[in-house]
């Protein structure tokens, strides 16, 4: 039996293609480059780009003619009730954490097969390491947040994310799952002796009522050969306590 064609919205599809192409670009793209990426002609995408620019979703550099995404999509996402609730619960706790450990901290969430930074707090300190809000990173063992977000998921989703990590790190899914098992057993990422990690960081999950991580709270440290044991212990304890407080605020489990 022949399947009936599904109803479509060509203009919407075209606009979404353009937004996704810009989101995946590390720099601005010209109309010609965008047309090539979405498989359309320059004339086909011209009116859509004009509309997206008028609505504030993209910006055009007058000097180069290149288009980039604005933060409008991020602002819309941050107004989504679950995200807004999470930020409302997390930001005051993150401010206290940054002040107590004198290091920056940030909050990340899963974003498809990647993860995104949705909040960052800086301490009153002259030096440190931090990431941009809105930055998106791949799921790989190079990042503490990625490991924590993947480790504290329900079984099916956890296995899916382990496969993504395995592909990105070019290891077996079994090895990726074993690494996630260690992190879930420890209640977070407090070790960087896995041979993969680029940035020394501690990370803990923010757990909702279902038992899965809706976010990861992470404290990156200035790269050192070794952190004094007492300092590492203090940072880990403060981070665990902060993550527990946020989890409780959103009705989750500690």
Would you write up a description of this structure?
The chain is an alpha+beta fold and 254 residues long. Helix content is 48%, strand content 15%. The chain contains nine helices and seven strands, in the order αααββααβββαααββα. It has helices at 10-23, 31-38, 42-54, 72-78, 81-101, 144-151, 155-169, 173-186, 229-249; strands at residues 58-60, 67-69, 105-111, 114-121, 136-138, 201-207, 213-220. The strands form two sheets. A five-stranded antiparallel sheet has the order 5-4-3-7-6, sandwiched between helices. Strands 1-2 form a two-stranded antiparallel sheet. Strand 1 and strand 2 (67-69) form a beta hairpin. Helix 1 (10-23) crosses helix 3 and helix 5 (81-101) packs antiparallel against helix 9. The protein starts with 9 loop residues before the first helix and ends in a 5-residue tail after the last helix. The model has no long low-confidence stretch (mean pLDDT 87).
